[in-house]
């Protein structure tokens, strides 16, 4: 996939080392096509890692994709340098007057806070409201999905007794929805969160449809009735070692944490797992770009 990102973005060298097609600006301009303009609101603390993960799963398409990285101005990042943010990120005021084919709102490690207690909640609400008129389709991830479901539909989140942490099986409920096209009946996806949403709340909401669910961790993929918003309560984009790194981080912080479920071979934390969710991760993002962005967006935004 010809993905257009700045030459100096750290993710570029990593992706090129994985043989992902990263296009130079000059080559992109030589192609007589309009690229899809995708806005990524990155709320994760270590932004470089999330950039690489998302750009990787956006790579499984022949479409030319132009990515703009967005941050919230009302929060000071402690885990990403100001130099990186200044060089590669926009503030909302920089993009407010533009329209985008697609938008991704990432998760954030704030799920144990009430939404209104998150320091950038008002700014996020403003961005989510703006997206309804200025973005063809918005994909929300993990806490971003919970936040979007709460703001747009009043869906509550609930604290869990233990962290929903590991690899979990999910069942496809609607095989005719294009987002699920090509999915196996049962597929694996990573989760890492302390809160959940309830299936009965989603099914009681006329504006939402549940597309995939897990017996262990609940609703996973949800779509709005107008197909303009998609909510993925999980992390299909995670790398092989992401759950392991989170586990070791929590141990180092002295937190009580179970090993990620169904993840380590023989439940041995010294052995990294085979990646058994990669194919469905790429399929999810490819289907999103194709059916909900490219096929739905006007040529002139």
Task: Please tell me about this protein's structure.
There is one protein chain. By secondary structure, the protein is of the alpha/beta class. It has 10 helices and 12 strands. Strands 1, 2, 3, 4, 5, 6, 7, 8, 9, 10, 11 and 12 form a 12-stranded mixed sheet that branches. Helix 1 (10-17) crosses helix 3. The longest helix is centred in the C-terminal third of the chain and has 17 residues, at 278-294. The two termini are 22 Å apart.
Summarize the structure.
By secondary structure, this protein is α/β, with parallel strands linked by helices. The protein has helices at residues 10-17, 25-30, 47-57, 82-88, 92-95, 121-134, 143-153, 199-203, 242-252, 278-294, and strands spanning 3-4, 22-23, 36-41, 65-70, 89-90, 100-105, 135-141, 158-172, 186-196, 208-214, 218-224, 229-232.
Descriptive terms for the model:
12 strands; alpha/beta; 301 residues; twelve-stranded mixed sheet; Rossmann fold
Question: What percent strand?
Answer: 15-25%
Determine the N-to-C terminus distance.
Answer: 22 Å
CATH homologous superfamily, by name?
A: Class I glutamine amidotransferase (GATase) domain
- Give helix % range: 25-40%
CATH architecture group name: 3-Layer(aba) Sandwich
User: How many β-strand runs?
Assistant: 12
Derived from helix and strand composition plus strand pairing, the structural class reads: alpha/beta
Which segments are poorly predicted (pLDDT under 50) over 5 or more consecutive residues?
Answer: none
Average pLDDT: 91
Order of helical and strand elements: EHEHEHEHEHEHEHEEHEEEHH
State the name of the first-level CATH class.
Answer: Alpha Beta
CATH topology: Rossmann fold
Number of helices: 10
Could you tell me the radius of gyration in angstroms?
18 Å
- Can you tell me the number of structural domains? 1
Main beta sheet, described?
12 strands, mixed
